[in-house]
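Follow-up to my post from last week.
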Amino acid sequence: MTEKFKRQDGRKLNELRPMSAKVGVIPNADGSAMFSFGNTIAIAAVYGPRLLHPQHMQDPSTGILRVNYDLMSFSVSDRKKPGPSRRSQEISKMTEYALLPVLDLREFPNTVIDVQVYIIQADAGTRTAGINAASMALAHAGIPMKNLICSVAIGKQDQEIIVDLDKHEEDFEEGEGATDFPVAKIANTEEYTLMQLDGKIPPARVKEVLALANKSCEEIYEVQKKALKEVFEK
Amino acid sequence: MSSMDIANVTLETFKKLFSTGQRFDLRKLDEYRNIELGFDVSNCAEGSARVKIGKTEVIVGVKMNLDAPYPDSPDKGNIMVSAELLPLASPRFEHGPPKFEGIELPRLVDRAIRESGVIQLDKLVVTPGEKVWTVIIDIYPINDDGNLIDAATIGAIAALRKAKLPGITEKNTPDYKKRTNKSLPLNANIPLSISFYKLGNSIYLDPTREEEEATDVKVTWGISDWNGKMMIHSCQKSGKITFTQSEIESMMNLIEKKYLELNAKLKKLI
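User reply:
Got it. Predicted complex:
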């Protein structure tokens, strides 16, 4: 590690942006939450379990989880055309896969639990903020869960492994460029529920990424837990 | 991954076999099937290839268009990857808007190719800020017997290696009839996708269709020997259960060896 390396916002390599979280932000929903990493703000609403339509999609052995993730049109510099894109469809599916391992929906046959995740303001790390919000919203809705899911993007700028990249860091182009490695895991376990990556990282250094993810997810877990307690211990 | 279709008895048999390191076709868990490559499958394409891994067969064609560059990269060409999961290739595929599998496949190939930097996009500029080449990689599975993603990436890189630039007319449009003998500006590295599939606690590579249907979760890694240095370029976990940290670490221990093995095979074939 070079000691000279400085992040332009002055953060340490292993320092997350300031996080905030709030539960119960959408009164209509059965569960809801907001989660932010610095300037990236995600909100999530949970509706259900409710009867799934069309009927032929129902599964009599279990309820199903259906996630929809998207950016609000004004959340990015160049306006994003409203409506689903291939990117948003992929992230929706990955978010679903990230959340499913802690859920057991066999108690709710023929139903669907809809999770709606929207990004109000995007400064990189939107899928991870969205997963953190969705996990809290599911807990708020009282869906039986084994544990919370914590998600963070680990990255690499040239040779340095850093946590929670902002947009400026994600656009870094010198040396080995920028790598974005968003992960999610079941809190306090070694079980990974989301792994995606874009960039350049030697296989031998993935270990360092996981170590940093473990540490960061512990911090995220505390933020999520505190926000949930504020609602349930009132 | 629809495990709906697979019989429980098959699933249990796979679990038992895999847990003792065995497969129906006698391969080792980390062993690929035989790989074959063919070229020039369609002469209107700027480059094309046919890849077979066992009974899985994929055709990939490269077409080139002249377009305006993206505003944020005026001095770079573009890459586009598409795939159509034709009902021709499998009883599982249906006409109509793409399902998730059909969205994921080209996006994974795109990321493996793009992030490896194998296409020198800055050399695809015809008139800076105005006209650049778009490299379009179109993927068509012909017979799906599992592991389409790894096959598609091999097909894509093979077709890119064989592609020749079209001519350019006086009006600055592509002249497909007057193909030049100039190859695409490519680096020497060969990006590949290597996907790890998991059932129970067993992890295996290159599944047949039936083995893939038994899979609980998979993760696809894009990898290349970037400037002589082994680099992971992309990754996506897809499926309803988890990978543990130690599973991820053992994949990272194996992946370089697998890459070098495939790379050596392909170098002979391309």
